[in-house]
Amino acid sequence: MNRREAMQMMAATGFMGLPFKIGEQPANIYTGWQFNRDAQQHFIKKHRHPFFSQLNQSIKGSSDNKVVMLNQFFNKALGRPSKPHDQKLGDCVSHAFALAVDYLTAVQIYMQNTPERWVAECATEPIYGGSRVEIGKGEVWGDGSTGFWAAEWLTSYGALLRQQYPGFDFTKYNPKTAREFGRKGCPDSLEPVAKLHPVKTTALVGDFDSLCDAINNGYPVAVCSSVGFGMNSDRWVRDGEGFLRRRGRWGHAMLAVGFDKKSTRKGACIENSWGDWVKGPTQYDQPQGSFWVDANTVNAMLSEGDSHALSQYVGYPSVDIPDYNIW
I need a labelling partner for 100 at 20 to 30 A (CA). Which of 179, 215, 302, 325 fits? Predict the structure, then answer.
C-alpha cells in the first residue's frame, strides 16, 4: 500500500482518529484501525497456522446451540463488574488487544484452572507504541494501528500491566503517553520485561462460527473492521434484545467477548472502548459499554481479514504452568 492508498483508506475508515459528533454535541468517540495488506501477507507467511480454521478440529462446532459470556471470568478476576476502556485518541487497536489479554488471563485462571494469579489489567500504551513502531516500522501517518501489528507485538514481545515499572507509571491510562509511544515506540528498557509475558498464539478468525468456537474454548477475539453501527436520534441505543444495527463505516477495533447460538437471533457480544457510550436493553449480564451484533454482520466484520483469536498468555504463575495450545 503506497502513501496515497493509505491516506484514502484512512479517510474512508476514520483511521485518523478524529472524534465523531453525536447530533449537535461533540463527543470523544475515537476510532483508529486501518487495514494493511502488506501486514496481512507478512502475518500469513510468518505463521505456520495463521488461520483459526486450520487449528484443532476437535473444537469445530463446539459452540453449537450454546450461549457463552467470558466476562464472568474477568469480573471474578477483578472482584467487581468490569468497566469499559475510554480511549482518548485513535488507539482502539491497543485497547482491544489489551482487553483480550485481560480476558485471556482471567479465562486461564478461572475457566481452564491453570495455576496463575491475577496481578493487574494490561496496559494499552506499550501495545500501541510497539505495534506502530517496533512492528509497523513507523509506516502509519496520524493515529492508529493494525490488528496484525498488535498481534505480532504480543507474540514477539509481550504485555505489560497497569502497574509501575522503573521510570514509568501505567497504573492509569494516559493518552499523552500513548501518543508519545506511538511516535517513538515502546521504550527499550521495557522490552525485556514485556518479553517475559508474551501471548504465544494468535490466529485469524474469518467467520461467525469460528468466532463462537474460539470464545467457547476461552479465546477472546479482537475484531478489526470498517463496519459501523448507526445511532438513533442523537445517541446510540440498543434495541430490545441488546443489538445495534449496521450503518456507515468505522475504522475500529473492539473485542468479541460472548456469543448466542441458542436463540433464534444469533449474534456476538462486542465490548467497545468508548466508556459509557451506548444505552438500552442488555442480556446475559453483558459488560458495560458492549452491544450485540447479528451473525451476518459479524461475518461482514471478520471477512475484512484482520480479526484475531488469542491463546497461551504467559502470565504470572503461582507454580509452573503446563504448556497448552489452541491446536
Answer: 179
Cα distance between residue 194 and residue 211, in whole Å? 27
Q: What is the per-residue DSSP string for 212-262?
A: HHHHHTT--EEEEEEEEEPPBTTBEE--TTSB--EEEEEEEEEEEEEEE-S
Tell me how far apart the alpha carbons of residues 157 and 180 are, in angstroms, rounded to a whole number.
Answer: 19
Containing 108, the helix (H) or strand (E) segment is helix 92-110
Coil vs helix vs strand at 311:
strand
**Residues sharing a CB contact under 8 Å with residue 192, sequence separation 6 or more, in sequence order:** none
Tens-digit pLDDT profile for residues 83-139: 999 999 999 999 999 999 999 999 999 999 999 999 999 999 999 999 999 999 988
Which triple of cell numbers denotes residue 213? Answer: 468456537
The beta strand positions in the chain, using DSSP E, are 20-22, 25-29, 67-69, 164-165, 168-169, 199-204, 221-229, 236-237, 246-260, 267-271, 278-279, 290-294, 308-313
Cell of 50: 495463521
Query: Phi/psi of residue 106, each to 5°?
Result: -65, -40
Q: Cβ–Cβ contacts within 10 Å for residue 50, how many?
A: 18
CB 301 within 8 A of CB 251: no
On whether the pTM is more than 0.85, the answer is: yes
